[in-house]
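Record format v2
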Amino acid sequence: MTGSSPQIVCDGLRFGYDPRNPDMHFDCVFPAGRITTLIGPSGSGKSTLLNLVAGFESPLEGRVLFGETDMTATPVSDRPVSMIFQENNLFAHLSVFDNVALGISSGLRLAPSQRATVEEALQSVELAGFGVRRPAELSGGERQRVALARVIVRSRPVLLLDEAFASLGPALRRDMLELLIRIQRQRAMTTVMVTHFPSDARFAASQAVFVSGGQVLATGSAETLLDPERTVPEIRAYLGGSGGA
Amino acid sequence: MALRDDPLNALTTRDGRASVLPGGIAAWIPALFLGTLAAGAFLPLALFAGGSGPGELLPDPVVWRSLRFTLYQAVLSTALSLVAAVPVATALYEFQRFPGRSLVLRLFALPLALPQIVAVLAITGLYGERGVISLAVENAGLDFPPVYGLTGILIAHVFFNMPLAVRIVLGGMSSMPDEYDRLSHQLAMGPASRFRLVLWPFIRPALFSAGSLIFMLCVTSFTVVLTLGGGPRATTLEVAIYQALAFDFDPGRAVLLALLQVLVTAAAFAALTRAGGEISSGMTLGTLRSYPVRSSAALRTGAVLLIATGTLFVLLPFVIIIWRGLAAEIADLLGQQSVRDAIATSLLLGAGAAMLAVVLAYLLASSLASAAARRRFSGTQSASERLLGQTGSLILVVPPVVIAAGWFILIRQVASPYAAAHAMVVTVNAAMAVPFALRLLLPAAMTETERYGRLSRQLGLRGLARLRIVTWPLARRALLLAFAFSMALSLGDLGVIAIFGSQDVQTLPYLILQRMGSYRTQDAAGLALILSIIIAALMIVADRGSASQTARKTSRRTVGDRKPT
């Protein structure tokens, strides 16, 4: 599927954790093959929107379209999506190699050529030789790199990141973003990245979607939308003092 | 008697100082009490030291046969409970949208609260001669083994412990990070891979702790073995102790049996602690995911069948208790003086035991909480804190029947042991309930100390004032819950009263045992229903308490994760 990444359309999605009170309403487009950042105050519904796209939540109304295909009712496992969470992306009881290999065979039955693919993926995230280790023996940044290696072997056209690097320090976060950008460019994955660091969003993303109070308030190019001088008042209030961070 | 009264006096006179010195003297009151009570089990050893003591009884075949059977039935019961629990728990975990799932989980919490004697009646009604199930099996042209003996003991133990294991295993699976569940579905794992790679690593440790806990419970199983076994081929150490005192009057043998029992339970308890298990685990359950996943119709059917079979196995005994109980002459029973006396005695002793258990457990809990608060900066547990944490569990190593037997032999040296029945039932049943009450009270005590410990000290709030202003509003629910649970436990106990009971002092379980013994099964069934109704009323109170606690937890999580702030 590489190379033909779909755009993702959230068409009139209504959702609420209490179904009697669908207090969230999302309409937005994530352009094909680009990195879009999803920003907004905490509790605004960023992760919920991501979970709706991944299929972990089901909307009460509206459609999720991958290209022309309506995926609203498609089970999680049948969507062309890889997702990276803030933590627990790796099964603690499996080796690094097995954790990556799960992206190829969910039963861990690999042909020799597939084993080589796993090794290559580990190499490309600069973790060659780490295959035998357990996740607990790795640093937080290394664990997220293993998760990226699995994204590589899975080669799904859509990548969702839910504050994937939020618990890392600034310098490490920058390294991880560079790695992410490299992987994304090679495969042109449609990528949606939730972050609460405007600097990260400006660094990595070309598009931005601003969510507040369960609504999409603004969409546009990351450069314009995240510039305190040029943006809408709500985003300026959100960026506040951290606008330059 | 004097020995046992001491700690009680200390409890009341030092109550005021208890709060002034958190973790000080107050901490050691329950420890001293429980220690003294347990020591009673060993003191008779001294009486026999040197004389014609237990040593001469070592070659006694009864002793070794009951030791062998104790271990044999416990191993079998544990294995059967676990083997049955894994598929049921997995089906319940994987089939989140199973209608009535939460009802099933509630049902699975009930056997623990059901008095063993009542369960035994139900099991003989189902699987005994002309029982509902044994008849059905025989009508199908098959043989059903006689319920008295190993078969009945195993059925009863699986009835009590399979649901417990299911709840512990489910608890283990719900400790799995939410992301694992999501990942495994996103990675499109099949059921076999999902079980092997994702679920099993969380089931396995839960099985260890469930297994060691169940083994512990079965090794000290008294009522079930007394009523369903009891013959020479199916007698456990505890039942042999009872028989040595009640029928043969052979204190020497009773002491030797008690010693062996303590060795066995101590070993089992050590295993339980190593396995990270807890006597009161399985009392809480986490909440779980609900998002669309693909599962085949065959898998869903299999899950439904598994859940239905497990549910029926646990549910039927309750149905038959109600059915048989209603067929009895309840009004006639309630008119009998002996029944009314037994109800009054049961309620009185149960309430006394529950009160004592709650006081002891709260003293322990607040001491542990303040000890934990003090080491916030130093990190490691001190030896005395560890010891304190263990005293609550002392009753597990020295079981009620063993304690009762010890004190029975001791008191007999100076007075009629039957006169001490009330005091013995209250104190030993209280000790029995302490581990459970402690588990319920510890979180409340931790909160109280963490939030308001320093503030209270600064404001000079102590003693009753602190109890009224700080502790009670904060821990009220937990205290009521612990009281209800302790009382239910005491109401259903047959161990102590079996040894100390007489024509003058009878509780409901004791009366049921008597009526069973004289083949008045109808009466026994009616009494069992009365006892069950009393306990059900208590458990409803307890359930309300825990339900509102869960609600609070859930709302907090919702606020943290979901609501816009």
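Chain A touches chain B at residues 17, 41-45, 48, 54-58, 73, 75-79, 81-83, 85, 87-89, 91, 93-94, 102-103, 106-108, 154, 213-214 (CB under 8 Å).
The first strand of chain A starts at residue 8 and ends at 15.
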